[in-house]
Design goal:
Layout lengths: L1 H41 L8 H12 L8 H32 L9 H30 L23 H12 L8 H6 L2 H18 L6 H30 L1 H4 L5 H12 L8 H36 L1
Helix pairs in contact: 1-3, 1-11, 3-4, 4-5, 4-7, 7-8, 8-10, 8-11
Length: 313
Amino acid sequence: MASSTAAQQSDNIAHAISGAGGGILSMALTYPLITLSTRAQVESKRAESGFLDAVKRIVQREGINGLYAGLDSALFGISVTNFVYYYWYEWTRAGFEKAAVNAGRASKRLTTIESMIAGAIAGSATVLLTNPIWVVNTRMTTRKRHGETEEALLPGTKAPKVPTTVGTLLALLKDEGPQALFSGVVPALVLVINPILQYTIFEQLKNVLEKKKRITPTVAFLLGALGKLFATSITYPYITVKSRMHVAGRDGGKESMVNAMKRIMREEGTVGFYKGIGPKVTQSVLTAAFLFAFKDVLYEQTIRLRRKIAVKA
């Protein structure tokens, strides 16, 4: 019994490590799209622009580095987020599988409802533990500089120094207090439905295909893309509200999720909830697709490494 529990614990950690590694790789590949979508979500309606115009404006004003603002905090955030999520998801799934065996069920594979419950538990734990990281990341991604305008810097003008992750965190704590780190936590908890939908679709399609053939990284890539496309398209308005709340303390007084939604509807209409959806959906789909493809490979490598270490021991 003890050895079985230890083996399951080890497997949970292997999934968590591979998920964190896959998240880092996929985030690094798609980060400029995150910058573009996040800025589109929080900027005023007067600053609307097309995708290429937004890229040109950022590069002109901040250089290529502007597209990677907050990358260090994002990589740290995604590694922690995915580690926590996959650990809790696998832990919950193992519990359901054990219950299925004890109940004498023909298959221990998770049902759709069980997949959704596992996703809800893992997602909620992840949000509560990692929200501060994403608040800091959003502040860095959407930072405003003194005297910044939509125009390019004048020739010979030296750009202000870009704040570091630690500097942004300390400034936030000093100016707004620790509670600011949990801005947007309510819509973030609502957004737990995003990974629930994503992973439920992925797992159920994977279960169907596994009966016919082996799931390759390419198949995992496509399944991950499909799941994320569906999930992000449905939950995008909440993603916008969460981003607005992350920067609320910087741009003015804080407001509740309901008030934020009312204000967006009043000032910008329904379209305000979908600002930046193009790059966001593209980024989310690609990130999820790369994540699932990388995760499977990294998981296999982690298991092989663990076996080699066990043999040597």
